[in-house]
Design a protein that fits this description.
single chain; 646 residues; alpha+beta; Heat Shock Protein 90
Length: 646
Amino acid sequence: MSSLLLWCPLAGAALLYGAAVRATAGVTVAVAAALVAAATVTAAVCGWRPPAVAGAALSSAGVAAVVWAFGRARRRARTRTEALAAHRAAGTRAGDAVADAVRLRMAAELHDTAAHRLTGIAVALAAALHVTDPALRESALRHAGDTARLARAELAGAQADVVAPAAIDALVAGWSGPGVGGGVPARVHYRRTATSAPPEVAAAAYRVVREALTNTARYAPGARVEIAVLGEPGRLTVEVRDSGGEGAHGDLGTGTGLAGLSTTVATCGGTLTAGPDAGGWTVRADFPAPAGAAPVRGTWWRGPRAWDAALVGLAVALTMGASLLPGDSPPPRHFLVLGPLFVLHALPLWWRVRRPAWSLAAMLSIYPVAMAGWTEPPAGDLFLWGWWVELAQLYAFGAYHRRRAGMLAILAVGLVGGLALALGPGIAGDRTAAWAVLGPAVAILSAPAWAAGVLVARLRARRRAAETTERGVLAGRLADVARDERERIAAGLRRTAVRHADAVVTAAERGDLEAVRDAARAGLDTLRRLLGELRRPAGADGPPPTLAGLEVLTARRRAGVRHVGDPDGLAPELEVGVFRTVEGMAGERITVSYLPEGVLVEGAAGRNSRRRLRTLADAYGGTLTTGGTTGGATGDGGDVRVWLPR
């Protein structure tokens, strides 16, 4: 029986540790509760008195809390190690991901500049060839030359950035001028009440209007167009509606305009809808005001703070629980004083990192009560019983705070602990002299706990410095890759588009309508091929689990990711965690918020994906919550929020 009582707790601790390392927090809580219940029932079956049964329950709960904390720490460490290995292994593919991202951005630039301009030229010249009015034909030629020159300037990077909704005014004014949209003045009704918007939202709104107008010219030349850019408190709405038409130039499109536009709008946190409406076609984009990340549910029992909670539980359980077990325990009446003192001594461990000075002061405040003779056992025994609590606080001083504060803390523990021991019943003679000896002895014996914290802090700082250096080297290499790729495209593919724009200008200057039309169509055909080449992945493998790979992943999936905050300095393991989280989500809109305490990823996920994401978040010490307002749910999916603490 004695052997059984010895091995059962060890087996239970091993089971709990294994669950904490391999299973989620919820499963581990169930295992811990079952083991504590088993220990309590065993004590009751053995005939222990109720106080002793309570002591067994408290002691087993304290031990379970520590085993839990060790297991959870091991789970997070293993996740970090695996993520770092994945991040380093992805270093060879990071260059391909950056090159892919550059090509995708360049493809968007080509589509937004040359493709739109050449489409307008081709549509206008096709109509101008069927009119006999010399003024209209001359206007069409002049417009074609001006538009081609503008496209050439935009390809050279000379276009101005769109920073406000007012930039749409010039776009609409140019579109409704002579010779545009079929060789006759377009019938455009334009209304704008929005006066300001974030630059990225203003640029996206500009793209919506331009894409919608280009599609109107392509599919419904000569149609009546109504454009509204409306600003409301906390919202910007863009709507472009046409009255429909013949669709005479449907062969001029690149086939990716609305899909790419939807991604752009989603990146700004908005939604895009496009479809038939009363015989015509309506494109609508809604941009809500950017909202900060919603508060994240506390994760103390899952993340790194689990250690602090476990220490509090252990301190209360070992002091109160052990004193209730059979043996030389104080009379029950003494627990009226001891109970609150035990809690007051243990509870400050929760603030041992954030408020170390106040935490230590609260711990040491219980000993004057014991020195006054209000407790049994005496103050010296009480100090020896819970000395490890002060040692845990000294470790926190060394690991997280300045050395001077740690030295003062060691001195305070030595003074109070030495005095408590000097006033004990076992000390005879001059108690002041005993204090002078015991105080330094307690301080010397306490110093190794602080020194261990200092050593851990140094190792942690060295590791972070090495990671920072590694990130800097990688960032520099990737910046070189991005620059080289952009220069290669500018020297080759972009030059091809410029050549076609020049051909349009030359033909327009000659006054040859057919040559202008043919040059514009040839340019569009070439652009289709260029866009296909630019969107083709550089590597055979999928994108690496990095932030650069995240841009490629979402672009291929036609999903828009809105980044809130600054990701600079994000730890490599968190980069991998963010990538895996976004990879497991669905829908068109995903928001990644970089906060001081961690990263919040909001999106949509189906039932099976939610299970995988919950396991992933738990391995990082984070949480997954359902519900929210991301608006990206599709099918059986629902909105989820994944919190990954730093």
